[in-house]
Write a structure and sequence with these properties.
- The chain has 180 residues and is mainly alpha-helical.
- It has 2 domains: 41 residues, no CATH class; 119 residues, AhpD-like, CATH 1.20.1290.
- The protein contains 9 helices and no strands.
- The longest helix is centred in the C-terminal third of the chain and has 24 residues.
- The chain starts with 13 loop residues before the first helix and ends in a 15-residue tail after the last helix.
């Protein structure tokens, strides 16, 4: 059971209602994670702003989902692993690529470099080694490096919210690999 009330979009008011209505209009659903964030409209607005900006960059949707899966697994966030498994499938990732991303890699060389870099960032709270940075620099542009950092930060935020609030999983549930 969620530790924080998931705001019902039907009874929300003020800024929370406007933000929840915008998410519903955009996605066709209002995930529980968003409904929990709606308790603090400024936090939800900040998340949506960074999410919108980050998704306009050079990284393709599949790669952004790979990052989310790697970070969710690294941080043991079952809500986010479940959500991004479903979202990743819609983005075109097959089961093998989803599993690879959750393990910090990919069958595609460029995606593997992004995911390895993302996992290193998440594992070390950004204090990566010179070798890890050099490996990223060999495979990625500086724009891709900066965007990967932004996506890792965004996903760490969602992982912390998901875990701290114990938000109810409203996607097909997946088990964490560490628990398997």
């Amino acid at each position: 059971m969620s530790r924080i009330t998931a705001i019902d979009p039907a009874t929300a008011t003020g800024e929370a209602k406007a933000l929840l209505d915008a998410v519903q209009a955009s996605l066709g659903v209002t995930p529980n994670f968003i409904r929990v964030l709606a308790n603090a409209p400024a936090a939800l607005e900040g998340f949506l702003g960074l999410f919108t900006i980050a998704n306009k960059g050079v990284l393709e949707h599949k790669t952004r989902e790979r990052i989310a899966l790697a970070v969710a697994e690294q941080n043991s966030c079952q809500y986010c692993a479940s959500a991004h498994t479903a979202i990743g499938r819609k983005a075109g990732l097959d089961n093998a690529e989803i599993l690879a991303a959750r393990n910090g890699t990919s069958a595609e060389p460029k995606a593997a470099a992004v995911v390895a870099f993302a996992k290193a960032l998440a594992t070390s709270s950004g204090d990566i080694t010179n070798a890890e940075f050099a490996a990223a620099k060999l495979a990625l542009t500086e724009a891709e490096i900066v965007e990967t950092i932004a996506h890792v930060a965004l996903n760490i935020f969602t992982n912390i919210v998901g875990k701290a609030s114990k938000v109810a999983i409203d996607f097909p549930e997946v088990k964490l690999l560490k628990a398997a």
